[in-house]
Design brief:
With about 290 residues, the chain is an alpha/beta fold. It folds into two domains: about 240 residues, P-loop containing nucleotide triphosphate hydrolases (Rossmann fold, 3-Layer(aba) Sandwich), CATH 3.40.50; about 45 residues, no CATH class. The protein is built from eleven helices and ten strands. It is globular and about 65 Å long.
Length: about 290
């Protein structure tokens, strides 16, 4: 796969509440994120997954170990701007990331801070608006938009910076089903265009979209693999207070009754296709 875009090497981190109280959050974590990869990080509340995500572009820095972004160490202050141009972040509350009163001005805000030439800035804003499907809203006030639309604008502001990796820290957790679906479509499109995606989420339908899943428990990586491999271990996930997609649960139930039924299904459509396959083989029509 070549060289990693992001490399975490034996990362440990502790929140220091005061001189007498410290809370260890990450413990000796190591992993790589490769260019164009789609990685989901999951874990129950308090597992350390959001803290880990904030290390990926230097918002937090390890107490021990290192995070390297394209070979640049996040501990090096002089590399901070270059690192954050490589790795952009979108957080849970879009209102906290919106700073302007007009959509296109908000998307241009980061570019202005980087002194991007005016013509290039216009081209990048147009590109970002198109990428998230919000071109028709460019002259709207952001506070008139829905939660899902605001999150698209937050993503567009990062896309305009042209990062190589987009980190989503619970970016859909405050959205309804339709808002999450819209954001997932945007993320899929970005990944298809070779942008690396790291998503921290508790929505297993989003996890199913990833190439690889990293499971965090008490600040340590306890599982890692493809979504199909991870969701096959339902009992282990339940012990970690994590769920599996409804399609995975249903497929396992059917497989236990009918051994020919695929147990590694993670999408609803796959259940329909498997029923049709087995029905066709047995001579029973499934319309």
């Amino acid at each position: 796969m070549g060289e990693p875009l992001i490399r975490a090497e034996n990362v440990s981190f502790t929140y220091k509440i005061n001189k007498d109280v410290s809370i260890p959050v990450l413990q000796d974590i190591s992993f790589d994120i490769f260019p164009g990869e789609y990685v989901a990080i999951i874990g129950h509340n308090g597992s350390g997954k959001s803290t880990l995500s904030k290390h990926l572009n230097g918002l937090l820095k390890p107490d021990q170990g290192d995070v390297l972004v394209a070979g640049m160490n996040t501990k090096e202050t002089k590399q901070q701007r270059s690192i954050r141009r490589k790795v952009g972040m979108v957080f849970q509350h879009p209102d906290n990331q919106i700073v302007a009163t007009i959509v296109e001005d908000d998307i241009a805000f980061g570019l202005e801070n980087l002194n991007i030439p005016r013509q290039e800035m216009k081209e990048r804003v147009n590109f970002a608006l198109d990428a998230v499907g919000m071109t028709e809203f460019r002259n709207r006030p952001p506070h008139h938009l829905s939660g899902g639309q605001k999150q698209r604008i937050a993503i567009a502001g990062i896309i305009a910076m042209m990062p190589e990796c987009l980190v989503l820290d619970e970016a859909t957790s405050m959205l309804d089903t339709f808002g999450r679906r819209d954001i997932l479509q945007v993320v899929r499109k970005l990944n298809q265009n070779k942008m690396a995606i790291v998503t921290v989420t508790h929505h297993m339908s989003e996890v199913a979209e990833a190439d690889r899943v990293i499971v965090i428990e008490h600040g340590k990586i306890v599982m890692e693999g493809s979504p199909r491999d991870i969701f096959q271990q339902e009992e282990v996930l339940q012990a970690l207070n994590l769920d599996v997609p409804a399609a995975s649960r249903m497929a396992k139930i059917i497989h236990n009754q009918y051994g020919d039924f695929r147990p590694d299904i993670i999408y609803k459509q796959e259940i329909i296709e498997e029923v049709r396959r087995l029905s066709s083989r047995s001579g029973v029509y499934a319309g």
